[in-house]
Specification:
198 residues; two-stranded antiparallel sheet; binds zinc ion
Length: 198
C-alpha cells in the first residue's frame, strides 16, 4: 500500500488566547514588516523567521506544504500570488496560510486585512495559493541536502584490503544529509530590530 502525504500538521501547542494574541501581534506589526521588507529579504535570519503558528500550507497528495516563513510571505505578496481581495472593504488580504485538498478544491486560505484590522478567511483559487507556497518553499529551502563523505569500509573480492583474500578495506562512503542553512530569528525579536530602522 502506498501512503500518501496527509498534509503538514502544524504543532498546535498554543491555547486559543495565545493563538489570538499571536495573530494580533502579526496584524499590528504588518505595516513595519511591509515597510522594511527589503531588510527581511536580504537577511536569511529574518527571511526564515516564522511569523506564527498560523503561517503554514497544508494539503495532501502532492509535496511542498509546510511552514510559511516571513520571506515567503513577502515574496508571495510582491508577486500577488498570496494576495486576495477583501470582500468586506475592498482592500487586500495578506494571505499567510492555506489548507485544503488540491483535488477537490475544498479548504480555505487565511490572512489579515489591514483595513478591516482582522484575520479573514477566503476560498478563492486555493490551488493557485498551494502552487505559490510550494514553489517558494522549493526555491528558497531552509535546509539543503548534500552528500558528505565519511570513513567507512567496503567489501573487496580477493586480494584487496589488509586481510588475506577477500575482506573489508577502508573506503570513503557517501551519505546524503539534510543541513539547516541558517538559524532563523525569533519573529518578535526581528520586529524589534526592524523598528530600530525607523
Ligand atoms: Zn477588509
Amino acid at each position: 500500500m502506498v501512503v500518501y502525504s496527509r498534509g503538514f500538521a502544524p504543532q498546535n501547542i498554543l491555547t486559543k488566547e495565545e493563538a489570538e494574541e499571536e495573530k494580533r501581534f502579526f496584524l499590528e506589526n504588518l505595516p513595519v514588516l511591509l515597510k522594511h521588507q527589503k531588510v527581511v529579504l536580504d537577511n536569511p535570519k529574518y527571511f526564515f523567521s516564522l511569523p506564527g503558528s498560523f503561517a503554514f500550507g497544508s494539503w495532501p497528495y502532492i509535496p511542498g506544504d509546510g511552514p510559511v516563513y516571513t520571506g515567503y510571505l513577502l515574496l508571495g505578496w510582491q508577486s500577488g500570488g498570496l494576495l486576495e481581495h477583501c470582500t468586506e472593504c475592498g482592500g487586500s488580504i495578506y494571505l499567510v496560510g492555506v489548507g485544503g485538498s488540491p483535488l477537490s478544491g475544498s479548504g480555505s486560505c487565511w490572512g489579515p486585512c489591514l483595513e478591516c484590522g482582522e484575520f479573514k478567511r477566503t476560498f478563492e483559487k486555493l490551488s493557485d495559493k498551494m502552487v505559490c507556497i510550494a514553489e517558494l518553499r522549493q526555491n528558497h529551502p531552509v535546509e539543503k541536502s548534500e552528500w558528505v563523505e565519511e570513513d567507512g569500509f567496503e567489501f573487496c573480492w580477493g586480494g584487496g584490503g589488509s586481510g588475506v583474500g577477500s575482506g573489508l578495506s577502508p573506503a570513503k562512503k557517501k551519505r546524503l544529509v539534510r543541513r539547516q542553512l541558517v538559524e532563523p530569528s525569533d519573529f518578535r525579536e526581528m520586529i524589534v530590530k526592524l523598528n530600530e530602522f525607523d
